[in-house]
Request: fold
Amino acid sequence: QKEVEQDPGPLSVPEGAIVSLNCTYSNSAFQYFMWYRQYSRKGPELLMYTYSSGNKEDGRFTAQVDKSSKYISLFIRDSQPSDSATYLCAMKKGGSYIPTFGRGTSLIVHP
Amino acid sequence: EADIYQTPRYLVIGTGKKITLECSQTMGHDKMYWYQQDPGMELHLIHYSYGVNSTEKGDLSSESTVSRIRTEHFPLTLESARPSHTSQYLCASSAPDRGGDTEAFFGQGTRLTVV
Reply:
């Protein structure tokens, strides 16, 4: 079993939809949770960074962590075609500098 | 935008050739990393460095080697390229520890094809 599971998609939604992207994990030692966005032929860029359980909001993006269920989510409101990319979840144990990545979910927002 | 640069962006090379993928960052980050990424698959850590003269192998076995002679420079070398090395290679760096809040900045990647 992989430490981090993420459905690769693709997930196709119409412009304006609310998008929900999810990851599950098996290692309860993970304390830091991140979402990266990767456009085609580019490197990943950090979108959201959360510590422990709870919600964090940044503009149209909301990251949610449920440590009891070992489940994290990224919500995108009012999705735009420019949001079309691969979204990778990543997580780190306390005291570690090295994240474990999911395989990424490909999101397509069509006009 | 992150100041981390990878060259070349694309490379097609013959089997058996020696290649070096360059990675430089101007942010003064002490930690640097090399990841391998195949389409639709996870990023796999192949090498990392916590500072000058410090290098470690990552989780994914790799025939490549790295060096860290200067803080800003972390090149990756393949002594004899093989078709199985065809992949995207991503370099990243992160700042000194701020209580766990260490964001990794990625370069644009080098897409390597070995024919």
Remarks:
- Residues 3 and 26 of chain A are 5 Å apart (CA to CA).
